[in-house]
Amino acid sequence: MKKTTLSTQPVEEEDDDEVRVVIVDENDCVPEFLQSIYSKDSVPETVTTATSLLQGVTAGAPQRGASSSTVEAGARTLTPLLSASDCDSEENAELTYYTLSPDFSVSPHGTIFPAGPLDYERPNHLYEFVVMAVDHGAAPRTGTATVRIRMANINDEVPEFSHYELDAWRPPSFCAQLTKSGV
């Protein structure tokens, strides 16, 4: 339920019967993500820190019904949307995104980037971390969602022999002596 504060102020005119009502929003709503879990699959382990993995939704963009799955649009692939909303108004509804993950960074608008090299050779080939949306109220409120990034393997490992000692086998030499006869 949304709470508001109601105050009245007399209008500085000769008519004292007129009253101005000012409604001030209280920061009582918690930011809510559209989904509790956002996923991105098949991220190559060679992805750079400039690559957007999940795209935040900016103000004015449609938010309801957004999907976190990758969408094919003609020949291009759209990045999944990461989005939260807050039912308050003004600065109480403005959101900034954060994460404590050492492997990923999040822009203030919710776009997720790798913070450094990523690796397929990790448990379940998966990175999982929490993203926070924090509103700009005097007493900020926070909402969270889980992000899962599943890696795709790239042939980036140098082959290694499992044994350092190798035995080689060579077939015995076959020698034949030819002689010329009958001359």
Q: What would the keywords be for this entry?
A:
single chain, about 180 residues, mainly beta, 4-stranded mixed β-sheet, two-stranded antiparallel sheet, 14 strands, about 0% helix, about 35% strand
Structural notes for this entry:
- This protein has 183 residues and is an all-beta fold.
- Helix content is 0%, strand content 37%.
- The strands form six sheets. It has a four-stranded mixed sheet, with no helix packed on it.
- It is rod-shaped and about 145 Å long.
- It starts with a strand and ends in a 31-residue tail after the last strand.
Our estimate of the beta-strand percent is 35-45%
Number of helices: 0
The average pLDDT value, as a whole number, equals 79
Q: What's the helix-strand series?
A: EEEEEEEEEEEEEE
Q: Mind telling me the C-alpha Rg?
A: 32 Å
What's the overall geometry?
rod-shaped
Order of strands side by side in the largest beta sheet?
Answer: 4-14-13-10
